[in-house]
Amino acid sequence: MQPSVLVTRYLDQLTRELSFDPELSRRVRREVEDHLLDAIGDDGGHDPKDAAAIARFGDPKEIARQYAPLSLLQQARRVGGILILAIAAILVLMKGRGALYELLQWRLPADWLGISIIGPAIDRYGFMVALVVGILGWVYIGSRRVSATLHGGYELQLNFCLLLSVATASPLIGSVITDSILSGLRFSVAPTSAAALIPLMSVMMEVGVASLIIVQLRKAVQRKALVSSLFADKNADR
Amino acid sequence: MEGEMLKGHLDMTVLAGLADGPAHGYAVIQEIRRRSGGAFDLPEGTIYPVLHRLEQGGLLNSRWTAGESGRQRRVYSLTRSGRRALADQRAVWQRFTDAIGGLLGKISHATVRPGH
Questions:
Q1: Angle at A109 between CA A106 and CA A110, to 5 degrees
Q2: CA-based, 20 to 30 A from B82: which of A68, A94, A196, B92?
Q3: How many Å apart are CA A175 and CA A169, to the nearest integer?
Q4: Is residue A191 predicted with pLDDT exceeding 80?
Q5: E-assigned strands of chain A?
Q6: Which residue of B has its CA nearest to A40?
């Protein structure tokens, strides 16, 4: 049995309202389509059956709103988890590269506007701040419980989760940028050899991890904005 | 009125709807309607966000299965934690209804005694 035009239109609208979470929207569409086809098949007295089944299912916007609290928390948890993994990966890459520089005796040029002193300090402290805030953020995000509604207190918690993620990502990305600059300086004075490929690849991986963090944070902000627009007319009515 | 009262107890209601075994969303709604004698008649779409939330909370499992019609459908079942949560909520609800029943019983007893 194929869904009617009316059911397809309804499913399209529900998918649009759930656009803040594309993965969820695909799953919900499949489930709701199955539900509506069952309901139409069971419906004895109503005509047209699809209109009655849709009316009983409810307003797509209202249904989408009920998914928002869980979706936003899942996104926050995902970003928190990725940040912790990113911190661990960057730590391993940094330590590995440091050991290799020592082994190859690749030093920073001493006469480069003091960057050889300030750079490593920015790199080290940026990473330490990211590590501490990241662990605190992860614990905070992990201890949040999903709410059935997007009330003020819950929204504050979600905003704080996002703030902690940004507060972790900023020094971490700063540390990666500094580290890349310092590595570039080392490469500039190091002898050309195949061994340079290892730290070069390591720096590229770090930059890749930093890019992944930026993408995830952007997704989290976008999702938050889409959910806010979903609630905009409801909040205006208050 | 029942609908408004039900909103505050949706999690328990959905868990109870799955107490007899795995079911898809539509069957859960039918079960809730049947067990409540048709008293609980919420918009059907309300059930799905609750199912997803309970699944994320570890109280339900779900998987896609092929239905009799050949359509793929998502079937939900209670986890061990879900069964425990349902038992806990049943006990709390029983204490609550006993207490309210006792209270209302006393009130109605008092009001049917004119002159006191």
A1: 125
A2: A68
A3: 10
A4: no
A5: none
A6: B26
